[in-house]
Design goal:
The protein is mainly α and 132 residues long. The protein is built from four helices and no strands. The protein has one domain. Helices cover 83% and strands 0% of the residues. The longest helix has 33 residues.
């Protein structure tokens, strides 16, 4: 589960999203709107994968695994219920042609994505270690 989630995270956050902004024919409001829709769906998929990971972790008795899964849930909650609504509002303002002031919210989201990737790598490593 963690490896699949890591693949989704890398594909959406670290590949598709940055590349989208390099397409010269795609204007900023459209790129931002596509990103908003993409991250809304990706977040739902991540919650599903997190739930499956919680279920899979129930079979194991590794404390570090539970700690990592808990941290992943906390990051996902912060992104879903705090950061994404703020970022979605900013996207709506930009699409409406408004000028928005710079805030740290996008950077915080990016840092949390990186932390999520590291934690998922650790979950995969813990899982692989249990297999050997």
């Amino acid at each position: 589960m963690a490896a699949l989630w890591l693949g989704v995270l890398i594909g959406v956050s670290f590949l598709a999203t940055p590349v989208k902004f390099q397409a010269q024919s795609l204007d900023l409001p459209t790129a931002l709107d596509v990103g908003r829709v993409t991250f809304a769906l990706a977040t739902k998929v991540e919650w599903g994968l997190w739930g499956l990971l919680v279920g899979a972790s129930a079979w194991g008795r590794v404390r570090i695994g539970w700690l990592l899964v808990g941290l992943l849930g906390a990051i996902l909650a912060a992104q879903s219920f705090w950061l994404l609504p703020i970022l979605d509002e900013r996207v709506a303002q930009i699409i409406a042609g408004e000028v928005v002031a710079s805030t740290p919210h996008h950077l915080i989201y990016v840092v949390l994505e990186g932390l999520k990737a590291v934690l998922l790598i650790l979950v995969v490593a813990v899982g692989l270690r249990r297999l050997t």
